[in-house]
User: Fold these one by one.
Assistant:
Number 1:
Amino acid sequence: MATSAGRSADVIVVGGGIHGCSTALHLARAGLQVLLLEKDHVGRHASGVNAGGVRRLGRHLAEVPLSDASMTLWHDMPALVDDHCGFSCHGQIKIAETEAELDALRQRVASVQAIGFQHEEIVKRDELRALVPAVAEHCVGGLVCRADGAALPYRTTLAFARRAVALGARVLEGTRVDAVRRERGLFRLSTPRGTFEAPQLVNCAGAWAGAIAAQLGEPVPLQVIAPMLMITEPVAHFLDPVVGATGRTLSFKQFENGTVLIGGGLRGTAWPERNETKLDLSLLAVNAQTVAVLFPHMRGVQVVRAWAGIEARMPDDIPVIGASGTSEGAWHAFGFSAHGFQLGPIVGSIMADLVTGRGTRFDLQPFAVGRFTAHNALARADAEGA
């Protein structure tokens, strides 16, 4: 990554995950002088160690328009970052084990269609088995998004960073932001490497974004989480799509080398101040048992590695995207709640449009940082009454 000593830029992006790197790339494409500050290294946390799901399937309805637009970018990824990022398009499937679950999925399809999107469809038992031959006999159908897929998260995040640098952005790794202040129309960011300044600031700091928001006068109820994943020894090829479950916590896919990735949002413990996580082996066992129920031939397959990333979750499980409510020229994109990887390309484009004053065609009201204002007021009242 670039290590230029310049102290100023048109815009400073804080955070070297996929959203920060995508924002830097799109801003550089727009002709701005961009400086990205990352406290560790690009892709160090959630963006580099997630399951790599590239999905519209099952999105919160507020996210569906963004996710659909982002998928268009994923399907032409080499044009954006000069790398296919390991993207494969074998679809994503959410399995139903009962007729009640299948009915719930039908209601889901109707809700997506009601807002104008057609990418999710119901499949019944026979077609489910055609798509996932190894699935357990008791499964009755599922919800499918055929153009979804998966990619390699660390490779993808690095590709965005490299392309941003190629277009003139500066990326400073090992540069922790300790303090943010606004003086005479400039944001001044204090770091161990000195002070950097710009008239515009984009907060893409992930699990550490809450501290920046608080310094801008808008604290948020951000929770730091540690989503866990594990990977098995290689087994004979049996699966192409990414598989989830309706009534269980699961994200399940097989790589070309035969190894199988198992996740689904179960969490360990995170200590963001130390860059550390701890696995919860009892919860990993739950994931393993789910796999054994849905894919009986996986019983006895050896798990060889497990890990947990550090991610930010918001109380409503959707991110903060858009303008600061307190500081003109400041913008937020954080709190992706363990499902932000697929949104990375479009979020960077949206942030660049906002920073450059072009506006956006998307409704960002559901993602506004101000939706937590009432929560903050209540917290202050509780503190004052204590």
Number 2:
Amino acid sequence: MNLLTLAQDAAPKTLPSKSLLDYIHDGGTVSYILVLVSFVAVTLVIRNILIFRRSKQAPPQVSQRLSDLLKSGDTEGATALCLAPENASFLTRVFGSALQRCARSPFGFLELRSALEESGQREADRLHRYNDSIGIIAAVGPMLGLLGTVIGMIGAFRSIGQLEGASRSTELASFMSIALICTAEGLIIAIPCTILFSVFRRHVDHLISEIAEQIETLTRTLESMPGGSEDKAGPVRRPTVPREGVPAR
């Protein structure tokens, strides 16, 4: 009986399995912050997937309606279509802003292409700003993980200096768990966010290129109207350089 007891005591004891929540709890406060950051990252990824769609940034029905209005010469109707809140998209914001600028300018539609370039650049920056939030999380994630690592290492060295025996081993293991778990969580957040940031950036560049081709087609439609851009712009009067002693007219 004694031999059996000794054999059982000598047998290796299996450690109780830990759940994911147990590991998160072992990581301390920084670990919970990293979990919260991961939920924010997932939310931003879903938002980007919904926003960075061709049907969202250049709805086919709106594009077709805009093309029909431009072919019929109804630039006021095209402007109203672009400014309607329900039609808000990359295409309508770029083209609507350019049409508004041409309507206010004394040069009329002669400024169309420069207006499209400026509004297009502004809207492209706006789209990229949606993706910047994921890039920020990709950069902050490892930093938070490093913060948890430093906190864990500080506690580990403190336990080495102040405690002895079994209690020191227990505290040391606890603080090392904090350090390693936070490091792992920071990398788990940063690696996918870095990859998705690059993927979304390439997708946005490709999407902008496709919509730019569509805007170019609409621009040619407007320029090919009877009379061309000059009729729409009206007669352009060049500024007169005053001669000495003669007032400018």
Number 3:
Amino acid sequence: MKVAIYGRPNSQNISEYTRTLFQKLDDISADIYIHESFYIFLKQEMGIKDSMKIFNSHIDLNKEVDFMLSLGGDGTFLETLTYVRNLGIPILGINTGRLGFLANVAKNEISNAIDALANKKYSIEQRSMLAVSFPDKLFGEVNYALNELTIFKRDSSSMITIHTFINGDFLNSYFADGLIIATPTGSTAYSLSCGGPLIMPGSQNFVITPIAPHNLNVRPLVLSDSNIINLKVESRSNSYLATLDSRSEIVDSSVEITLKKADFHLNIVKLENQNFFNTIRNKLLWGLNKRN
């Protein structure tokens, strides 16, 4: 079994659980690829062995890699996408961070998770993504997101105006601090904190969620991900901030952004008894009675 590992060089990843992961992979004789900066960090802090292969970009990986393990929180999981890209390598998120919607394997479940991979006791869930199709140079080659694209005001306390079009038809001019266009996966992230709805994975939707809109009757909108969304922004600072998952760019107000569904999907490993309903119950504490 060929396994790639990505993690951030930080104190969360020098623990007994990280040692457990590498010991378990060694026990099953896994062929390990590890991100170089993470490898250097772990070698200095934990003294891991030298026999692992190193990768620095998606070019160093290939479709023969069976799994990508993301060691960290949801932010680390999103960074992992920049290495997997369109290779189709399934990602398993091991949570050493906080909430963990995407990285939903708990630290104390690492041994069981690796056993499940080795014994093929898992399923693959396909997640749709969005892509910035214009301008081409915005965000470079990594012009896609699993969670969302967000438009923010910058350098001014004044709101911005985001003129929004669906397939060329005018939808609305949002007077707000910003606007979020999220996938079903991203519906549990920033969009949710701004009042957006939860959307099941596989629903083939986008959700448009305004950030602190001036008009209180403006509400999130769910639409099919077969639509093309165009955004034109007016700002007193003549620029705005655009973020694509964890990556950000300062954009001139003259630039119009076009969004559409990406032409490839992300594969996420789901272990037995893992599903969307269990995740939202556990992470959002649904049904938890604090009085007891």
Number 4:
Amino acid sequence: MLLTSVRKLKSFGIIGMNQRNFGLVSKYNPRHLYPLVDDKLKTKMLAQKAGISVPKLLGTLHFQHDVKKLRETLEPHKQFVIKPVTGSGGKGILVITEHDHNFYYKPSGDSLRLSDIKRHVSNILSGLHSLGGKPDTVMIESLIQLDPIFSDYSHEGIPDLRIIVLKGYPIMAMLRLTTHASDGKANLHQGAVGVGIDIGTGSALHAVQFGNPVSRHPDTKKIFSELTIPHWDKLLPLAAACYEMTGLGYLGVDIVLDRDQGPMIIELNARPGLSIQVANCAGLVPRIAVIEALSSIDPDPQVRADFSKKNFSTTLRMLPPRKLRTRATDLVTK
């Protein structure tokens, strides 16, 4: 049975955690560069220096005694996002969409008092959500405004796009759509929907929630097969340019589309997860092989993006739910 499972995974070209860690992360990402992406404040400054748009920074809190300044920091802003600077996997992120006197409202409509937010901030500072449990810094950002194209595809939150970049070439993409189950967060483990995206066209290929195939958004019931991401020709070069920006050969680039500001980088990841393969019903192995076979890396991000569109595009449309269920199950249960 185990041998059969291994053969199935290999037939899909799926890479596992060990192969990712040793064959990609260790191979292409010098450890001294990790802080550039593990620290969201450093990432933001790096992107701004490179002329890349990022959400506006509204404030930071570094120590427990800074919590008493929270009311003053939040008062001018009706909407905002609170994040741990070194958090991962969406942990510790608090989204507030409305502020009315002493009440702060989450995308779900649930209300919080200032004392609740202070407690949350204090937990972040103590390292509850940080990498390694070390004391952390709180970052308060402006809230991204939903692009109308996603109004039927996301619920109670803002979707984001994850693009895997190898040696400066985008090789796989996934759209993460917020749901009621995910509490408005674009996090697959919390219940967001992962939609595999065709590198060539920006169109939806497959979709999963909690590892199970879906053809419609669980809350809005909108069909995913009709989804195509706008500004695709701008998004791929933007992701490709993060190679020069960070020096990291293997990274995940997280992008949002703001209604007013357009594409923005919200996060970079030196150890991107592998669930993007499940969302695409395809493995990374063949695409990695194409890039590693190149004799040189083109210095132009646009040229690299065009190469990826040509080599990693698929003519497949979204599979019917029954076929999708069979293929996705093979991937997520092994």
